[in-house]
Amino acid sequence: MSKPLNGKIALVTGGTTGIGLGAAQELAAQGARVFITGRRQGELDAAVAAIGTAATGIRADASVMADLDAVYAQIAKEAGKLDILFANAGGGDMLPLGAITEEHFDRIFGTNVRGVLFTVQKALPLLVDGASIILTSSTTSVKGTPNFSVYSASKAAVRNFARSWTLDLKDRGIRVNVVSPGPIRTPGLGGLVPEEARQGLFDALASQVPAGRIGEPEEVGKAVAFLASDASSFINGIEMFVDGGMAQV
Known about the structure:
With about 250 residues, this protein is of the alpha/beta class. It has helices at about 20-30, 40-50, 65-80, 100-125, 150-170, 185-190, 200-205, 215-230, and strands spanning about 10, 35-40, 55-60, 80-85, 125-135, 175-180, 240.
């Protein structure tokens, strides 16, 4: 049976765990050759093994310009093009307004905003006309969350990147869309609280979701694969919420 992404070359930044890994696995399952990045070699090797022979891991920090240059140099050498870019690397932690530091701000905006900007910019020479770019935002892009203002603001910036870049890239037919997950069972979400409080956090978040549960990384991965494919050929500039209805009601 033909796979919808056969022959496509994809890059997933932050592809070693959570949503990035779930998306990389789904893209590979649908036929794409997938390059993933991650900062830690052990996690990178484990992710490549989990994805399978269609995956290539490149150790890189998406907030470091030299690392991004090395990523695209390797993809150019090994694949010669890029059809799908999932600029997913990001993260953040919680601090109340009165405790926010310059380090906190610079670290979160450095990866979530600066890193996403230059991940996309540096990909442009490799991206084919008609390529698909997907950015990771969050339900926090449209909702207020106590103690999470810097992260939330960074994700609102990502959402606007897609609006603007859709116009910047229209002459090349490159689509730019955003996937905005709600609470997803990932190490990043669980890591916001001590391990003994993790299930309590998941349960509390599930109680806010109309679907009655938190999501799984592979559910976001399916949304990413849809936005990467020709099935979404007339979808451009949108924010697709994968949130069980949390930000919708």
